[in-house]
Amino acid sequence: MAEWRVYLSGEIHTDWRERIVDGTEKAGLPVTFSAPVTDHGASDDCGVAILGSEPDPVWHDRKGAQVNAIRTRTLIEKADIVVVRFGEKYRQWNAAFDAGYAAALRKSLIILHPAEHRHPLKEVDAAADAVAETPEQVVAILNYVINGTLPDRAAIAAE
Q1: pTM higher than 0.90, yes or no?
Q2: Are strands 31-34 and 81-85 parallel, antiparallel or unpaired?
Q3: Secondary structure element (H or E) that encloses residue 49, with its range
Q4: I want to staple 103 with a disulfide (CB 3.0 to 4.6 A). Which of 57, 86, 90, 127 is the partner?
Q5: What are the domain boundaries of the chain?
Q6: What are the Cα distances from residue 44, in Å, to 49, 53, 58, 74, 93?
Q7: If you average pLDDT over residues 15-34, what whole number do you get?
Q8: Predicted pLDDT of residue 158
Q9: CA–CA distance, 109 with 9 (Å, rounded to integer)
């Protein structure tokens, strides 16, 4: 069975990535994951750490964004499926950009967010192939598309 490449984009403040990785490992799914750099400080400061300091915060951020974009664009382009998580607390503008980029590339796209974000994310959701509310639902989607196996509904409801 071929390896599926899944890119995990979005908020970095919760354990959603680990839950998806653990769930796919437990299910024995042939998935390789990639993601942006999730160390917030490293992501913010990579440009100036590598290319030199900037006194203006705008250019500090711009250098970091440009260096991070190399990774993000490359990994999204290589992915079979892109999962984009919008968290409860923070606005993830970069996640919205990643979702749009993946949609423009016609990548299979799974959006993950809590129910209360349905309205503000309606356009993003409309571009997705699936919209999930829990990491366990994402694992069930991956299991279905890879193996054609439906989950035990009771098991998903319990998680």
Answers
A1: yes
A2: unpaired
A3: helix 40-51
A4: 127
A5: 4-36+79-158
A6: 10, 12, 12, 19, 14
A7: 97
A8: 57
A9: 11
